Amino acid sequence: MNYELLNIQTKFDPIFANASIHWIENQNKLFKELSELLNKNGIFAAQLPLIKNSIFHQNLETLTQKYGLNSRIFYALEPYEYYDILQNYFKEVEIWQSTYYHIL
Question: Residue 104 above 90 pLDDT?
């Protein structure tokens, strides 16, 4: 998915994203642009799903390979990959992992 931040002239104290960044292909560019929209002591917070090892993603991979489809609809990275990118644009980076269980 492509995105465009338009021509935003305002700076923000918090910027928050919940389960949306994994849809964006060029996350490095996105994080750079978001960091430029923060006030000096602003905070960027995001919830980034780790779907690569999920049962859903494994089944998606199996089906897309079986039917010759493009499975690259999500661009979720590993935590260390996010850390490597984020440390380039933010003064402090904290990453932790949580598991949420859903009864289906």
Answer: no
- Structural domain for 50, as ranges: 12-86
What does the DSSP assignment read for the chain?
Answer: -----------EEEEEEES-GGG-S-HHHHHHHHHTTEEEEEEEEEE----TTSHHHHHHHHHHHHHT---TT-----HHHHHHHHTTT-S-------------
Q: Name the pTM for this structure.
A: 0.82
Residue linked to tokens 């642009």: 33
- What's the total number of domains in the chain? 1
In a domain, 7, yes or no: no
Nearest to 46 by CA among 82, 12, 7, 18: 18
> pLDDT per residue over 58-68, tens digit each?
888 888 889 98
